[in-house]
Design goal:
Strand content of chain A: 15-25%
Oligomer: heterotrimer
Organism (chain B): Streptomyces lacrimifluminis
CATH topology of the largest domain in chain A: Dipeptide-binding Protein, domain 3
Largest sheet of chain A: 6 strands, mixed
Distance between the termini of chain A: 34 Å
Number of helices of chain B: 12
Protein name (chain B): Dipeptide/oligopeptide/nickel ABC transporter ATP-binding protein
Helix content of chain B: 25-40%
Helix content of chain A: 25-40%
Number of domains of chain A: 3
Distance between the termini of chain B: 34 Å
Chains: A alpha+beta, B alpha/beta, C mainly alpha
Subcellular location (chain B): Cell membrane
CATH superfamily of the largest domain in chain A: Dipeptide-binding Protein, Domain 3
GO biological process, one term (chain B): peptide transport
Strand content of chain B: 15-25%
Family (chain B): Belongs to the ABC transporter superfamily.
């Protein structure tokens, strides 16, 4: 997910309330926590019990109210407009797609399975035509059948960016790369189904015609932005306030920033849905402005889990690790935290100077700045998140970041500097978002280790809310001399394309809103991506992913800090809990159940 | 400085009344001392006097002479507003209509206030509550002591305002103090004090804050009312002129004590204390040419913490060296009868004083 | 009195216009001068050019400044229509703008959040007035005693301790520790007892801070008033001491307290950000906090305007109350 919620802000005021924290800890945890690894039918399942495996699957009972809390509301609950990862995860409660991720833990969760469709796509050999047949008995919340036209209309909404901004536009880019279709609201055809790339020969059949093959197309159809939307229920920009449900739950009430309540959709039939279990009767989400408050509620047992799934706040985390370890999971988030070197800023046009920074950095210190091995993550050694097919994790470590050079290798760094022609070092600027204290900490760590090898780095904290305007503009980056930019990135869907395409492909260098900060213009990499989208077999795709990652690392454009991990909370009462690679280590919301429904 | 007699018994004011008290108001050896961080402030230090109904007593002295504290002492207000501060030390006796007030139940005294005895203050603007109408304030004063409804009380207020000479009293009753002129305010204040027909009225500098012309009106009013109600009146002033026509008796205070006391005409025409001479000299007289310089008392009032030894007035007294042996600076003079119903506390002999008065002072006045 | 009121109302109306213009200027013109494209902040970080253009069109950001200000003004009185990209949004009067971040008109958000903030502010105000003033009066009457010193030390603590500290502490002790109350906000219309239970800690926490200030000012004022001549007069009338204090002295003491109360309530009605955030109360303060985090400019503008209005209104009420309390004011 390229759009991140600002988890940094929550960390600010904590130092000040540290004194209270001690009190809170003792007060809130009077009963004493069970931190054993063994689960019980009443207590917590144990530390990491739900990380890539199912915790207490058999204990889930029908009924009750599942209580989410969150420090951040969704960007939009409109399936077309949401971009936050947790929104995609949560949207499966009230929306169905042709295909979706399996409701299974870990890597299996990232595999696609038919949802509205009877099976995965029938793809023609050239990879340009995808055909689906809809299941029988799939209905809207008013009981009417979901048709292929509803699916087409839902997808068409992606084209109406001027009204429905915010969501991913992969489908638009792939189905209509020239931007010929103007979206359903400007559609002159009577049925508003003027998008030529999609055919709906009958209510049960939908056919996608791709101008060019893309092997991740079905992944894109699994995004919630491919959910059906019924034309007569489309309230356009206001759709996110009350989406019309195709899933087992429907919107009961929603007050932005305050609360969201879903209740059972009586028209949804279990028989029509092979993946959703729909255990609870009701799902509530309460939003908090103060993340600390949220964590207190979780610790106190008032809430079952954090909808944002970005990890607990430092204070809550400390308490939880100490007192309630059995309620925690420590999954990999899918994010890589890193520094990137724009080639437009000298001397980072020289690969040796880039290498000097990579060698000279104290990687353990950077990891510590991120929160250490548990809360921060494992030291990042390459640029492909471990949850993506083709990733090798720490096994691929071309610069021995987690190995010999983990504390920084001054000698090697100086050698690289000499090769770069800057034996005596140089001056540069580190750009970092001012609203993310952890990122600022990594910048300071980097600054300190660079000083040892003669590189004087100034830290420029820019307005984090203006990211796309400031570092998303290559011209501005060059002007300001941002030689090092601290950033983070996570996959939109678990593939090298869903993660790295905008970062590494020369076609994605934009004048504003640029994400290819390193300004990589490598024909080999571009070629590998082209090859990737036309390769339809999984083994081939995996191999190409690995290869792309290697090429990127060989260019020394990036200094990875960590393969991010976080600490997420699950209540004692939560059953059938597991993390899924489909949503980057989040718990899979849609099949959560309660042990004792209440 | 010579240590003063703590018992206070040395005060030689002749007392004719019995302990039960025959006079309407009798004050005996009243002492009001305020402990402060700097020392004991002896605001009133052994004061005695009597007052009959229908009579007027003028208490005269400079500011800080203890005259206001005396009046507050009689009202039982000497320690009001002293929250948290050390309590005033009061001794002596105050008999009002046969009851001793200092030893009486404070609530009993409170009930006397405003009904049996009431008070008029110097500055009617600050003495009246700015947020309540004149009527409300009079009504309140009336209803504390009379169980009547508001309407009746208001009628009474209008009646009183009428009585004190406020025009259109039925309208002005709803005015606020700031809507009145100074004289009107004082009339209203008087109306409020008299609303319960008090037997004792204490007027503390009732005209000081007023214009000269208004002063006379107010004094006339007080006199008329006294005649009408038959109250005993104490007028406290620094200005002998104020009491000249009003008072039956005059009591001159200096440094917390009485230095001269007697019938008004005696004190005016045959004063026997140099301080009284000084006061007379500084009195503006309507029958004299205004061009003529007043003769003020030189120097400033004594500190009530460190009252000069001997005669408290000695540092300012031009005749301090007339008595022999430096006695004025070592021995405190007691009140002594200088004539019938006329007392003064001075070390000079009668003859010396008579001579100085007739030869040096009186001609200049 | 009437003339006084009319004068005040007129002044308030002029202020209102000025405030709207200043607020609008700050939020819409200053970024323009600074070269920031407001339209992009409405569509999020992945700004599709079509999306940015859509917002620009809908909001009329391409229009001249005066036209934008006029549209905004007009919207307050007659409502406004936003249209673009085949989508039309009606924003009924009073239209204080439209949030494209949460897809709702600003005014309903304000009216939805306002009662919570109002209840918080008023409830706390009652508490702090009762306890602050009582403590201040007692301190004044018992000046210099142990009670007075103790009360003033507590008051000093109350003034100095930040609300998130006292708030977190009280939550830790009463909600999470002793579990006396469930500090989860419940709307009043759902359950009175639930609402009351959720409000009681915020009330107390907020009131503690203000009670401390009020105790101090009450004490100082009361001491001053007790030295006034008219208090002596009241005593000379034979009034009971409690009437002297409770009626005559209190009425005067109330004047500065009322001034403070007006200002404080005005400011609080604009949102007790820290309290609302600490106790997760869905009031204006939280709305603006979330809006800042989400870069939801229209909400920020709306709340700012409402805050200004609240302060303005509170000023007006104070002025009127002044006139009621102090007859001298009516003349000037």
């Amino acid at each position: 997910m390229t759009t991140q919620r600002t988890s940094g802000q929550r960390k600010r005021s904590f130092a000040a309330v540290a004194a209270v924290a001690a009190l809170l800890t003792t007060a809130a945890c009077g009963g004493g926590g069970d931190d054993g690894d063994k689960g019980s039918s009443t207590g917590a399942a144990g530390f990491d019990a739900a990380n890539n495996k199912i915790a207490q699957a058999s204990l889930a009972k029908k009924g009750g109210t599942l209580k989410f809390g969150g420090a951040q509301d969704a960007d939009s609950w409109d399936t077309t407009r949401g971009y936050y990862g947790f929104m995609w995860n949560f949207a499966r409660y009230y929306s169905r797609q042709l295909v979706t991720g399996k409701t299974e833990p870990g890597a299996a969760g990232a595999e696609l399975t038919p949802d509205l469709a009877t099976g995965l796509a029938k793809v023609t050999d050239d990879g340009k035509t995808y055909t689906y047949t809809l299941r029988d008995g799939v209905t809207w919340e008013d009981g009417k059948a979901i048709t292929s036209k509803d699916v087409k209309y839902g997808i068409e909404r992606v084209w109406a960016q001027d009204v429905l901004s915010g969501g991913p536009v992969y489908l638009k880019d792939v189905l209509d790369p020239k931007g010929e279709y103007k979206g359903p609201y400007k559609d002159t055809s009577a049925d508003k189904l003027g998008l030529k790339a999609i055919d709906t020969p009958d209510d049960k059949t939908i056919v996608f015609h791709l101008p060019q093959a893309n092997s991740d197309f079905e992944e894109m159809l699994a995004l919630v932005s491919a959910s059906p939307v019924r034309q007569d229920k489309d309230t356009k920009s206001k759709y996110g306030l009350k989406p019309f449900s195709s899933g087992p739950y429907k919107f009961e009430s929603y007050s932005p920033g305050k609360e969201l309540t879903l209740t059972r959709n009586a028209s949804w039939k279990q028989a029509s849905d092979p993946i959703r279990k729909a255990y609870p009767d009701k799902i509530t989400v309460t939003f908090f402005s103060d993340a600390n408050q949220l964590d207190q509620r979780l610790l106190n047992g008032d809430l079952d889990l954090d909808i944002n799934q970005t990890g607990m706040s430092p204070q809550g985390r400390t308490t939880a690790l100490k007192e309630h370890k059995g309620n925690l999971d420590n999954p990999v988030s899918g994010y890589i935290r890193y520094a990137v070197f724009p080639q437009s800023v000298a001397p980072f046009d020289n690969i040796e100077c880039r290498k000097a920074v990579i060698y000279g950095a104290d990687h353990v210190s950077l990891q510590t700045a991120r929160g250490g091995p548990v809360a921060g993550g494992d030291i990042g050694t390459n640029m492909l998140p471990p949850s993506i097919p083709g990733a090798e994790g720490q096994k691929y470590d071309p610069y021995e970041i987690a190995g010999a050079n983990k504390d920084g290798n001054e000698a090697k760094a100086k050698e690289a500097l000499k090769a770069c022609g800057k034996a005596s070092g140089f001056k540069t600027t580190i750009a970092v978002r001012n609203n993310k204290p952890v990122e600022v900490a990594t910048a300071q760590s980097l600054q300190a280790s660079l000083k040892k090898i003669g590189i004087t780095a100034e830290i420029d904290q820019y307005d984090g809310s203006q990211t796309s305007g400031i570092i998303g503009s290559p011209e501005n980056v060059k002007k300001k001399g941002y030689g090092i930019i601290i950033m983070g990135w996570g996959p939109d869907f678990p593939s090298v394309q869903g993660f790295g395409l905008p970062l590494w492909n020369s076609k994605y260098i934009l004048e504003s809103g640029n994400s290819n900060f390193a300004l990589i213009k490598d024909k080999t990499i571009d070629g590998l991506f082209d090859q990737y989208v036309t390769t339809l077999d999984d083994a081939g795709k995996t191999k190409l992913s690995t290869e792309i990652n290697h090429k990127v690392m060989e260019g020394a454009y990036y200094l990875p800090f960590v393969f991010e991990k976080f600490i997420n909370w699950r209540s004692d009462n939560l059953a059938n809990v597991y993390t899924t690679d489909s949503y980057s280590g989040m718990y899979d919301f849609v099949n959560l159940g309660l042990k004792s429904p209440k | 400085m010579t240590e003063l007699s703590k018992s206070g018994a040395a005060v030689g004011e002749p007392t004719t009344a019995s302990s039960s008290g025959t006079a309407f108001l009798e004050v005996r050896d009243l002492k009001v001392h305020f402990p402060t961080d700097d020392g004991l402030v002896k605001s009133v230090d052994g004061l005695s006097f009597q007052l009959e109904k229908g009579k007027t007593l003028g208490i005269v002295g400079e500011s800080g002479s203890g005259k206001s504290v005396t009046s507050l002492g009689i009202m039982g207000l000497h320690s009001a507003g002293q929250y948290g501060k050390r309590k005033a030390q009061v001794s002596g006796e105050i008999w009002l209509d046969g009851t001793e007030l200092l030893s009486a139940d404070p609530d009993y005294v409170r009930k006397l206030r405003g009904r049996e005895m009431s008070m008029i203050f110097q500055d009617p603007l600050s003495a009246l509550h700015p947020y309540y109408t004149i009527g409300q304030q009079i009504v309140e004063a009336y209803r504390i002591h009379n169980k009547v409804d508001k309407k009746t009380a208001k009628r009474r207020a209008v009646e009183m305002l009428d009585r004190v000479g406020i025009p259109q009293p039925d309208k002005r009753v709803d005015s606020y103090p700031h809507e009145f002129s100074g004289g009107m305010r004082q009339r209203a204040m008087i109306a409020m004090s008299l609303v319960n027909n008090p037997e004792l009225l204490i007027a503390d500098e009732p005209t000081t804050a007023l214009d000269v012309t208004v002063q006379a009106q107010i004094l006339d009013l007080i006199r008329d009312l006294q005649t009408e109600f038959g109250s005993a009146v104490i007028i406290i002033t620094h200005d002998l002129g104020v009491v000249a026509e009003l008072a039956d008796d005059i009591l001159v205070m200096y440094g917390g004590r009485c230095v001269e006391r007697g019938q008004a005409e005696k004190v005016f025409y045959e004063p026997r204390h140099p301080y009284t001479w000084g006061l007379l000299g500084s009195m503006p007289r309507l029958d004299r040419d205004q061009q003529e310089r007043l003769i003020p008392v030189k120097g400033s009032p004594p500190s009530l913490i460190n009252i000069p030894s001997g005669c408290a007035f000695n540092p300012r007294c031009p005749y301090a060296d007339v008595p022999k042996d430096n006695v004025t600076r070592t021995v405190r003079p007691e009140l002594a009868e200088v004539a019938s119903r006329h007392w003064a506390a001075c070390h000079m002999t009668q003859e010396q004083r008579e001579r100085i008065w007739t030869e040096e002072i009186a001609p200049k006045l | 009195m009437l003339a006084y009121l009319i004068r005040r109302l007129f002044a308030a109306a002029v202020m209102l216009v000025v405030i709207v213009m200043v607020v609008f200027g700050i939020f819409f013109l200053v970024p323009k001068w600074a070269g920031v494209d407001i339209a992009t902040s409405f569509v999020g970080k992945q700004a599709d050019p079509a999306a940015v253009e859509g917002v620009r069109q809908k909001l009329g950001l391409g229009d001249p400044i005066y036209a934008q200000v006029w549209e905004f003004f007009k919207g307050i009185f007659v409502g406004r229509t936003y249209s673009g990209g085949g989508d039309t949004i009606q924003c009924a009067a009073p239209c204080f703008g439209y949030s494209f971040r949460s897809e709702q008109a600003v005014w309903p958000v304000l009216t939805d959040r306002f009662p919570v903030t109002l209840a918080l502010a008023l409830g706390a105000a009652v508490l702090w007035l009762v306890f602050g003033v009582a403590a201040g009066v007692l301190s004044a009457l018992k000046r210099g005693t142990l009670w007075d010193r103790g009360a003033m030390v507590v008051a000093l603590a109350g003034v100095s301790l930040p609300i998130y500290f006292t708030g977190m502490l009280s939550l830790a002790v009463f909600a999470f520790g002793l579990k006396w109350i469930d500090a989860q906000y419940v709307p009043l219309e759902d359950s009175f007892s639930g609402w009351f239970g959720a409000m009681i800690l915020p009330w107390i926490t907020l009131a503690f801070l203000y009670a401390a200030m009020y105790a101090r000012i009450t004490r100082a004022t009361m001491l001053e008033i007790l030295g006034e001549d008219y208090i002596r007069t009241a005593r000379a009338k034979g009034l009971k001491e409690q009437t002297v204090i409770g009626k005559h002295a209190m009425r005067s003491t109330m004047t500065p307290i009322l001034t403070m109360l007006g200002m404080d309530l005005g400011a609080l009605i604009g949102g007790a950000i820290l309290t609302e955030s600490t106790f997760n109360l869905p009031g204006l303060g939280r709305a603006v906090l979330d809006a800042i985090r989400n870069q939801d400019l229209p909400i920020i503008v709306g709340v700012t305007l409402i805050t200004s209005l609240a302060v303005l209104f509170a000023n007006l009420v104070v002025d009127v109350l002044y006139a009621v309390i102090d007859p001298r004011v009516r003349l000037s």
